[in-house]
Amino acid sequence: MNRLIKVSAILAFLFSINSLLAISEELESRLLAKALLESATTPQQKTAVASYFQALAAEKREEAKKLQLLASTSRGGKVVSQNAQKREYLKKAERLEKEAKALDKLVAEGEFEVFESVAVK
Residues in the chain with pLDDT < 70? Predict the structure, then answer.
């Protein structure tokens, strides 16, 4: 019994440390974007980074379209839960559209601060 309590305590401790050290996917992508922008020095590197950001923006737009389509389709079930799911899909789609616009602006202006100000925390 004591061994079970010790193992449980150790696992709980490890999970709490893991959540403290983990960074969000959004923060990770912002840091990656910043590193890419700062490291691009030659015209070829800048072109490659711009192409990457344009492709990423296109992916985000495509995912937003899929979410908007999901929001517009009826799947049956209770109206309350269906409306809540629809709002969630539309909210995610709007966030993805904002991120895609920020990436486009980033490519056009070459400024990282624009992307940081739009990102949802």
Answer: 1-4, 6-23, 26, 110-121
C-alpha of 12 from chain center? 28
Indicate whether 88 belongs to any domain: yes
Per the structure, the complete domain to which residue 108 belongs is given by: 25-118
pLDDT tens-digit profile of 23-56? Answer: 677 677 777 777 887 788 888 888 888 888 899 9
Structural domain contains residue 2? no
Nearest to 37 by CA among 115, 118, 111, 104: 111
11 occurs within a structural domain: no
Alpha carbon distance 51, 106 (integer Å): 11
Report the percent of the chain where pLDDT is more than 90.
Answer: 23
- By three-state DSSP, how is residue 23 classified? coil
